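Structure in, sequence out. Go:
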């Protein structure tokens, strides 16, 4: 597994790439300070969800996290205040709080 750093000053973040990286998610989240038992909210799109959402959810639940998700329609139309409102509404209904974390599963619009 290889770690790359996206250098954006205070908004910098790591990207992990390689075989088996999904199985390492609970450990990587713990290293990032997201302790087990916390609520996670995955945001993904309709292109990525069928391939990865189920597996990622299962791995994270087995790692001790409470997992919730939102699947947006793929494409630029998802970049809207309406979709943002839907995501925030579902996150609040799931009981997320300041100790919870959002995970982007996919790139582009999801990020």
């Amino acid at each position: 597994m290889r770690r790359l750093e996206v250098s954006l000053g205070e908004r910098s973040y790591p990207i992990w790439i390689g075989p088996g990286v999904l199985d390492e998610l609970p450990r990587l989240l713990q290293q990032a300070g997201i302790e087990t038992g916390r609520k996670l909210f995955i945001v993904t799109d309709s292109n990525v969800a069928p391939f990865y959402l189920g597996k990622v959810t299962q791995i994270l639940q087995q790692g001790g996290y409470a997992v919730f998700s939102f699947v947006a329609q793929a494409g630029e139309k998802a970049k809207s205040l309406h979709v943002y409102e839907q995501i925030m509404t579902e996150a609040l209904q799931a009981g997320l709080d300041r100790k919870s974390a959002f995970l982007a599963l996919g790139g582009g619009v999801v990020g």
